[in-house]
Amino acid sequence: MTGTGWQPVRKTRAFEDVLAQVERRIAEDGLTAGDRLPAERHLAEQLGVSRSSVREAMRVLETLGVVSSQVGRGPDAGAVLVSKPGAALTDLLRLHLGLASLEPREVIDTRLMIERWAAARAALTGPDTSVLAEAIAGMDAAASAEEFVEHDTAFHCALAEASGNRLTAAFMRSLRDSLRRYAVEAVVRLGDTSGLQADHRRILRAVLDGDPDEAAEAVTDHLARAYPAPAGE
Amino acid sequence: MTGTGWQPVRKTRAFEDVLAQVERRIAEDGLTAGDRLPAERHLAEQLGVSRSSVREAMRVLETLGVVSSQVGRGPDAGAVLVSKPGAALTDLLRLHLGLASLEPREVIDTRLMIERWAAARAALTGPDTSVLAEAIAGMDAAASAEEFVEHDTAFHCALAEASGNRLTAAFMRSLRDSLRRYAVEAVVRLGDTSGLQADHRRILRAVLDGDPDEAAEAVTDHLARAYPAPAGE
DNA sequence: GACCACAGTATGGTCAGACCATAGCATCCC
DNA sequence: GGGATGCTATGGTCTGACCATACTGTGGTC
To answer: Which residues are within 8 A (CB) of B131 and not within 5 positions of it... i.e. 6 or more apart?
Structure first.
């Protein structure tokens, strides 16, 4: 019998309680990266749960990129708060791509969205472009598709970081990492990388000229070349 | 002594091995949402680790939104593969906002980026706009800031879903959820919601007219009204 | 006094084993 | 046939132990 208006009995698992209390502490005490959490045994005792439950909560926090655990003793040992949203995003995207619950096309389109925005933003803020130039030089010297993609990743991530927004930069890095396989395939399929390099130089020039619209267009053309849209779309 | 060229001894934790093997199985066997994983005890025995280690790996997979565990017996019990990237993203963003490792401004700018893109995309695909119209009506009838924000969230999430990209839609939902507090604050600060509603109607009209540029502009103006940029920027 | 060796100790990592609550399944009894 | 009852596989939790690690303090040595 369903739909009787009854609320399902809330059955919180122990580690979820631990998570909630740790999160509350972070918010209330204003903890930030670098601060330490109590030791697992102490936390278990104070919260009245077993150490196993505390450990499961720690695994969750570690997965989300907010905690890092070190063994041993001393100021650096134990669970310390960190800030690694990128690693968590990368794992998330990689697993869901593997599960086929996300299509490569969706990820690529999202990447285009981010990169258009980041390029336009970078053109407006006039960032340090030396890293971009170095990456282009690295691609010129690349001897294999893998090596080319490595410098290509550096170029596009540097572009995202030049936007000044850490969230989009982390997202960009994660998208690139989870798409690495497709990127290598794309380079191999194209064979000739001169077109891609011309795109890169066009993007760099637009950023240097401070022309956001041109930068966005250059990025769009670049990704259209690397990942041609399916015919039907 | 650092920098001697030695590689740190790779010390993989047991649950990380479990994670790697489960992920490999997912990829090799082509498992998708709905498929079941072996029971914790069986997995522990087959992998030669303790059940605790398997459980920690399960917590990670659950956090990343790829498995869901049910107790009991039968076809629905045990660890089942699911596809909930949204919940994982929401937790990620909320925790990092709480840690102050992400500024609200960064999250808001990211939201603007997504929403511009989604609105333009929706205008091109001509989606079902009844949900959007209902959300606007709901905001008209809202009696409190919280209620207004609830329908506002429905409006903007429906817009993102209309883009047809599940990744950006999930990201949008997560951003909204993690920004809920700021959204309520913004509505209270504005006092009058007629301007916001005018924006919503303008966005809807642009989508109906199939005008992507106007849709993007309308979204930009809307968010500028809700979250005014700091003076210095 | 400076320095080094060594025991002490707090930390996370791992395991084994037990017990519980849950929920489907099988059996028995009427 | 059908309902009551016990069985069993599942995740959830706890306890207690042991290990490896890495800092800390202590004491001895030069």
So the answer is: B154, B158
Residue B152 CA, chain-centre distance (Å), reads 16
Mutate to test the interface with B, among A124, A167, A171 (most CBs of B within 10 A): A167
Q: For strand C, which residues in window 9-38 of chain B come within 7 Å by CB? A: 12-15
| Token pair listed for A34 | 């670098």
Global pTM exceeds 0.90: no
Contact call for residues B175 and B129 (beta carbons, < 8 A): no
Q: Contact A197/A104 with Cβ under 8 angstroms? A: no
Let me know: does B91 contact B206? Beta carbons within 8 Å.
no
Which chain B residues in 197-226 lie under 8 Å from chain A, judged by CB atoms?
none
Q: Kindly report, residue by residue over B29-76, the tens digit of the pLDDT.
A: 989 999 999 999 999 999 999 999 999 999 999 999 999 999 999 888
- Only one residue has tokens 């919940």, namely B87
Residue A67 backbone phi and psi in degrees, to 5:
-135, 145
Sign (positive/negative) of CA torsion B121, B122, B123, B127? positive
Mutation site, B99, B112, B114, interface A, largest A CB count within 10 A: B99
pLDDT in tens, A71-111: 999 888 999 999 998 889 989 988 988 888 788 888 888 99
Q: Which residues contact A119 (CB under 8 A, 6 or more apart)?
A: A159, A203, A206, A207, A212, A215, A216, A218, A219
Residue by residue, DSSP assigns B49-69 as S-HHHHHHHHHHHHHTTSEEE
B26, two tokens: 């997912």
Q: Is A106 at the interface with chain B, CB within 8 A?
A: yes
Strands B67-70 and B78-81: antiparallel
